[in-house]
Amino acid sequence: MNLLEINHMKKSFGxxxxxxxxxxxxxxGEVVSIIGPSGSGKSTILRCATLLEQMDDGxxxxxxxxxxxxxxxxxVYMSKNVLKKIRSYFGLVFQNFNLFPHYNVLKNIMxxxxxxxxxxxxEAKERALKLLxxxxxxxxxxxxxxxxxxxxxxxxxxxxxxxxxxxILFFDEPTSALDPxxxxxxxxxxxELAAQKMTMIIVTHEMxxxxxxxxxxxxxENGVVVQEGTPDEVFHxxxxxxxxxxxxxxxxx
Length: 253
Prior knowledge:
Layout: E1 2-13, E2 16-27, E3 31-35, H1 42-49, E4 57-62, E5 65-71, E6 74-77, H2 80-87, E7 90-93, H3 105-115, H4 121-134, H5 150-162, E8 168-172, H6 180-195, E9 199-203, H7 207-213, E10 216-221, E11 224-229, H8 231-235, H9 240-252
Parallel strand pairs: 3-9, 3-10, 7-8, 8-9
Antiparallel strand pairs: 1-2, 1-4, 4-5, 5-6, 10-11
Helix pairs in contact: 3-4, 3-5, 5-6
């Protein structure tokens, strides 16, 4: 069974058609990277997949359960209770960390399991401490976000997403707010998650990373999938636009 299915997603903001037609299915343990130029709709796909935005049309299915169905050319979303359950299936790591500045690291990680999932405090704390240890931040539990480097903040952000024990993790440009020195430590964490067979969908501009890590890569432009395939297929594509894009990005990074 697919963990996630997106069928014929469409999304516009006013007159701007951001996603024209996007479909994706992801199996357990797969790592899928989405690449493409700015404005191609990559982040909007993640926002729609994680229910931060509503699709105009299309189907969204997690673990066989519909979050949204397409009815007469329009997405119709399920009840609040169904969506609440579906939200527990995924986690999202933002490019700008989105940590609560007034909470220390431990509370940032424990907050959602305790308040949203009603996990007992002691269990949530145990889970958080284990994740901090796993991510090389064991001594940072009492620190506040402003006391951390960007790389450390992003690792806390990953720990916060993992604390909800999701089936699938989404990353939206997880290293774009970091300088190159700190990028490596975040990519290392994501590689370790891939080795543990965590299902992930990653929007990224890190070409070498996408190439090494992904089972599949999707190249997007103008709201549609230009090519989808294995890293080798995409990186050795006959499509001139894809070759040009990868060449330019690799030259910058």
